[in-house]
């Protein structure tokens, strides 16, 4: 009987500690840890993937939602568009939004930039959206990174910029438009 008196309370204590509900509390306004958020840093998609454009941040950055509902920020390769607050910044963004917002695009990419954005060529029905931004005078051919382009793309983008400049399309209506890389330096 004495064994039961010792055994029974011990078992009850063991059972209670194993089955007690666990509560997790956060202190103050502490932000969730990366492990607590499933979409914090999605895995990299394949080198070529498709998705729907759900946001246009500016004339050279979009957000694409893939078929698994993972969001990826895409920096359009080979171009640099005017910044917010810069001449033609809003027009460039609007032009890109008119072209791709809500549409299914294909992204071809091989690197991320220092902000962890995917840097890629954006294709809509087989057309190079990056090239169209340059052709329409809504962005510069970003020659600083031209070595990352194929020789064919390098030539197409350079010719598109020359054509837009000659025709005075988009940002080229200004006699001396300020390139975004210089505008950012002056901030």
Count of beta strands: 8
What strand line-up does the widest sheet have?
Answer: 1-2-3-6-5
Q: What would the principal axes of the Cα set say about the shape?
A: globular
Query: What is the name of the CATH architecture?
Result: Beta Barrel
N-to-C CA distance: 84 Å
Keywords for this entry:
187 residues, alpha+beta, OB fold (Dihydrolipoamide Acetyltransferase, E2P), five-stranded mixed β-barrel, 5 helices, 32% helix, globular
Describe the structure in your own words.
This protein is α+β, with helices and mostly antiparallel strands and 187 residues long. It has a single domain, classed as Beta Barrel (OB fold (Dihydrolipoamide Acetyltransferase, E2P)), CATH 2.40.50.90. Helices cover 32% and strands 24% of the residues. It has five helices and eight strands. The protein has helices at 2-19, 89-100, 129-135, 151-167, 180-185; strands spanning 48-58, 61-65, 71-76, 79-80, 104-112, 118-124, 127-128, 140-141. The strands form two sheets. Strands 1-2-3-6-5 form a five-stranded mixed barrel. Strand 6 (118-124) and strand 7 form a beta hairpin. Helix 3 runs parallel beside helix 4. The chain is globular. The termini are far apart. 29% of the residues are buried. Residues 6-41 have low confidence and may be disordered.
Overview in brief:
This protein has helices at residues 2-19, 89-100, 129-135, 151-167, 180-185; strands spanning 48-58, 61-65, 71-76, 79-80, 104-112, 118-124, 127-128, 140-141. With 187 residues, the protein is an alpha+beta fold. Strands 1-2-3-6-5 form a five-stranded mixed barrel. It has a two-stranded antiparallel ribbon with strand order 4-8.
């Amino acid at each position: 009987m004495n064994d039961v008196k010792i055994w029974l309370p011990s078992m009850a204590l063991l059972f209670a500690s194993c089955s007690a509900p666990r509560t997790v509390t956060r202190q103050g306004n502490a932000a969730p840890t990366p492990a607590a958020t499933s979409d914090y840093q999605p895995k990299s998609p394949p080198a070529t993937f498709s998705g729907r454009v759900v946001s246009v941040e500016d004339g050279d950055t979009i957000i694409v939602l893939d078929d698994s509902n993972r969001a990826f920020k895409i920096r359009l390769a080979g171009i640099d568009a005017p910044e917010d607050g810069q001449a033609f910044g809003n027009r460039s963004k609007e032009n890109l939004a008119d072209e791709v917002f809500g549409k299914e695009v294909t992204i071809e990419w091989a690197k991320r930039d220092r902000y962890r954005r995917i840097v890629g060529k954006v294709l809509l029905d087989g057309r190079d959206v990056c090239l169209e931004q340059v052709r329409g005078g809504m962005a510069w051919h970003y020659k600083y990174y031209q070595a990352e382009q194929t020789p064919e793309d390098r030539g197409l983008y350079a010719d598109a910029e020359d054509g837009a400049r000659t025709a005075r399309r988009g940002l080229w209506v200004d006699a001396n438009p300020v390139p975004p890389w210089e505008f950012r330096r002056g901030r």
